[in-house]
Amino acid sequence: MGLGKTIQSISFLSVLYHKYQLYGTFLVVVPLSTMASWQHEFETWAPDLNVVTYVGDVTSRDLIRQFEIYVQSTKRLKMNVVLTTYEILLKDKSFLGSFEWAVLAVDEAHRLKNDESLLYRSLFEFTTNHRLLVTGTPLQNSLKELWALLHFIMPEKFDVGQNLKTEHHDSDHKTIASLHRKLQPFLLRRVKRTWKIIA
């Protein structure tokens, strides 16, 4: 915790917006407990992005759908980012699943380690160009959980979980080194001991 995952993720979306003219739409799914932090960091680090916070009761979400998603009387999107929670996503998966998302970012992505969960299956069906998983919680020595996350971001490359599990069933140094090499292009890992906090 405290290694800047939220800011790095928002900066990534901001670079896509400013440098590559990819204006969205980006879907960011977060736990309710971190929603205020994400809102604050978007305001601080990416004030140019039009972020719609998609939460609230049924009436509130109806109003958001009517007035915040599209330019009035058109089907042109007016937002760059939709920021929502897991719970709201599951309630409104039909609406949120109707978009083609440029980026789907999932905070606390270790919650997707079970590829049979409703959240995993719902998000997996969304049409996305890119997927970003953010977590501060390491996996607990389970290749099945790791495979579920890899399959979520690149199903065509990590289609058969059995290959990963059978290839890397030993825990010797050579096997671990091989697994690290395969994961390197897909994993950005920060640990506190490698960071010096400047006060």
Short synopsis of the structure:
With 199 residues, the protein is an alpha/beta fold. It has helices spanning 5-18, 35-45, 58-67, 86-91, 93-96, 118-124, 143-153, 161-167, 173-183; strands spanning 26-30, 51-54, 81-85, 100-107, 127-134.
Query: How many DSSP-defined strands?
Result: 5
- Largest sheet data: 5 strands, parallel
Q: Could you estimate the helical fraction of the residues in percent?
A: 40-55%
CATH level 1 name: Alpha Beta
How many helices? The count is 9
Q: Write down the overall mean pLDDT.
A: 85
What pattern of helices and strands is seen along the backbone?
A: HEHEHEHHEHEHHH
Distance between the termini: 17 Å
Assign the CATH architecture.
Answer: 3-Layer(aba) Sandwich
Within CATH, the superfamily carries the name: Tandem AAA-ATPase domain
Described by its quaternary structure, the protein is single chain
Shape annotation: globular
Unreliable runs = none
The fold-level CATH name is Rossmann fold
Report Rg: 18 Å
Strand arrangement, major sheet: 2-3-1-4-5
Strand-residue fraction?
Answer: 15-25%
GO molecular function: ATP binding; ATP hydrolysis activity; ATP-dependent chromatin remodeler activity; chromatin binding; DNA binding; histone binding
InterPro entries: Helicase_ATP-bd, P-loop_NTPase, SNF2-like_sf, SNF2_N
Pfam families: SNF2-rel_dom
Protein name: Helicase ATP-binding domain-containing protein
